[in-house]
Amino acid sequence: MSCVHVPLDLLLTFPSPFFIARLSSPRMPHTRIRPSRQHPLTSRSMLVFHLRTSGRAHSYSGRGQNTMERIPLVVRRMVAAEQSCGFVHFFASLADASATPLVIEAKAFSSAAAGGAADDAAPTYQLVYDVMRSRNGHILFKKSYAERFTHSLALAAPVHALPAQLRSLVQSRLQAYIESPGVYLDGATERNVKLLSWIPATAASTTQEEAFPIPGIVMLVKSSYPSESMYREGAKLGLLFNAHRTNPNAKVAQMGLRDRANAYLAENDVYEVLLVHDAADAYLVPEGSRSNYLLQKSDGTWWCSAEEDILVGITLKTTYRVVQACGLGSVQHAKLTLKDILESKSLFILGTSPTIMPVQSVLLYRDTETRRLYEEAVRGLGTTAGTVQQVSDDKAELLFPVNVELAAALRAQYFAEAASS
Fold this sequence. Notes:
Elements (H helix, E strand, L loop, with lengths): L1 E6 H5 L3 H8 L8 E4 L10 E7 L12 H5 L3 H10 L4 E5 L10 E4 L2 H7 L10 E11 L2 E2 L2 H15 L9 H13 L11 E11 L15 E6 L6 H6 L1 E7 L13 H14 L3 E5 L15 E5 L5 E4 L8 H12 L5 E4 L3 H6 L2 E6 L3 E11 L2 H14 L5 E6 L2 E5 L4 H17 L1
Parallel strand pairs: 10-11, 10-16, 13-14
Antiparallel strand pairs: 1-3, 2-3, 4-5, 4-9, 6-7, 6-8, 8-9, 12-13, 12-15, 15-16, 16-18, 17-18
């Protein structure tokens, strides 16, 4: 016998016979549903059902069509593409303190994502998310990530009221998720955790303040951590021209930009791309596609992009303390352009997966078109690059020396900060 916790508001979306017929459909053969005598309705938000199957217990696979229809197609596709876990937790509202997550097998999203085509009449959503690192039963900087996630929600829908307890609820639900049996695959003890919510696009434009449900999914995602050799040799980066975020201060997904960045990474075998704005923005380079960066100028000072141009991430805030603890002074902020990149002494990439990682090279251009864009930028900025290696007529990269001892010290201090947080 298996127990399924079904949020009451999910039942109320449809007439009860219809909902129960769906749960006992051929998708779940020989299944009989009855209200639990042992677990009566104990709160307004929860019904508990037992699913009795012929001869053996089955865990609920999440294939009920009504459940998946509550999750937008774009979200289902994202989960299908990114998940690396046994189960995901789905909340009809993260802000409902009495709610228990609906546990859905991650593999169920593969068929749910394929079962629908784009509909121009379907509502559009802002996808608000954050990604954090779980390690040996703990989420690094969990409190800080919960604060940033709620901040992103507030930016995405500024006139809506967020409950005061949302931050603490997010923290407890993240921890409960990574402690759930069967979540980690193949004995893994370290994975990135993604918390994802979706808000109708109209929520950002309405002028009426009101409370609203905050649906959410928590899942482990495919995680790629740099090899030890990358911390010694440095990462390879590239430049993605005419690329920028519409709201850099919040973790709001831009699928088109993400697709462009992913294609560049795959085609050029680099770890990350730096986003280069156009001439109208003086070729600003505020951040990477999924990271911040730190550069050291020729005078030895350390710099990061202006705070209004980036999401001041958890890793960046930690880096402030790390740099000071290593006796390197303080990190300063300014509007950094391609000129600053080309004239810098050293470069580091900052993020959840890489932590603080040195950079060995930046691919400046890779074909005729990107060479044209690069040369236009160099002329417009009146600068020249440092050590450039010409790979071919239409391919060149900027090289940086890697201080192995400094890189090791910065990384060690980062994990020391994580342990004390």
